[in-house]
Description:
The complex is a heterodimer. By secondary structure, chain A is of the alpha/beta class. Chain A has helices at 39-46, 81-87, 92-95, 114-126, 144-155, 204-211, 221-232; strands at 3-13, 16-25, 27-33, 54-60, 65-68, 132-136, 161-166, 177-182, 185-190. Chain A folds into 2 domains: 3-64 and 131-201, Rossmann fold (3-Layer(aba) Sandwich); 72-128, no CATH class. In chain A, 27% of the residues lie in helices and 27% in strands. Chain A has a 6-stranded mixed sheet, sandwiched between helices. In chain A, strands 2-1-4 form a 3-stranded antiparallel sheet, with no helix packed on it. In chain B, helix 2 (80-90) runs parallel beside helix 4. Chain B is globular, with a radius of gyration of 17 Å. The interface between A and B is large, with 40 and 34 residues.
Amino acid sequence: MVRITFNRLSVVRDPWSLSASGTFNEGVHLVNGDVGSGKSTLALMMAGLLPLSGGTIEREEITTTMLSLQFPELHVTGLSVAEECASWGVAPDEILDAIGLTGKEDASPLSLSRGELKRLHLACVLAQDYDLLLLDEPFSSLDCEEKVKLCAQIGQKTQGITIIFTHEQNILPRVKRIWEIVEGTLFDCGTPPDAFQHWRHVPPVIEKLIALGSPPDNISRDDFLEAVCRIQG
Amino acid sequence: MITAELLCYRNLVINALTIKPGITTIIGANGSGKTTFLKLCAGITIPDSGSLLIDDTPPRETEIGWVNEYPDRNILFVNVFDEIASPLRFRRTPCNVIDSKVRAGAEAVGITYLLKRAVRELSGGEKMLVSLAAALVHHPKVLVLDEYDSHLDARTMAKIEQGIRASGAKYIIRCTQQMDTAIHSDALLFFDSGRITHAGTPEFVFPFLKGTAYYPVFWGS
């Protein structure tokens, strides 16, 4: 079973610091936190790209890791969209139609709009399976409909550990576990819907649904809409 | 008023549009023309044909504050203080005035603690706040914000919303994919394939979007 465990992990950049303990098992996890809370730092450390100030990270049966960075242009290596796909080991005709980029095979990836480039990058990432998939702000630059599609794709993942690091609170996939970074510490909120009691900055929509006596089962938009339907009868 | 008449730029076509003072929010899919329109409002690009005027003046002759969704594309200086001070220094503002205005600008978006930091050390959201402070520091008449909230959490947004409203900008034109932000607007413009298909107050526009991901979960409940 794939698993990644933090043992009193810490990183210090005086006066800022981050500490984390906990175990991420197979499934989709959400790591929520404010701007500058350390989400990207944690993702970099999990990917082994940033040295720890203290503690250890144990990786069990994790042989393939992928970190998708917040800004997709940082991943670009191909001079054309087709080259970019090939650099990820993906045939362009396998993904371009689904992301609306058919006909742009010869275009420079950097000439695409920001949403198009993010879709291209995510399609290349999600075309393969990884034991540990780290998605740093995957929803930034995507419009509402594309966010919903991405959530559906992430929701279809059946193996490996997928961790979404984001401040997004409105359009999210169903997740197995919710984590939150607050004041320099990673907290394990647990599994939804029980996690909502421990999620300090629970999304306003969930807060409102709970107040109305109809908490959602999970954190996807479908769960929210279903909870609204319950209220409306 | 901001007025557009027979405006064409690449695939964007707007036959007639009037934007009143206040907060106007643009929503729509990627590639629908939102950023193109914002760049025209900011004077970064000029129309292929037709006109866009701000109180009868071209955007390039108007004080504009511009924030790009990708702040790295606009940030010029190494340190946060210098970046926020840059619009004032370009105008040869006296140093003692610059110092106080930079601190006030940073305070308006809650980043005084970042003033001594190097920009490259900041998170994406923090860079966005630096760009916003730099856009606000010279008190523009028009503030143009291109998905500035896509890297910001809800609590930070709530804090800076107040700073934006208090900025004194007569026109605030922004695009967002957060409908919780869009509902707090004086006017909404919904863009689809280079055209404005719905325009009006949130109460007028959102009913047209029912059944889409743009429809707020609690709207009308």
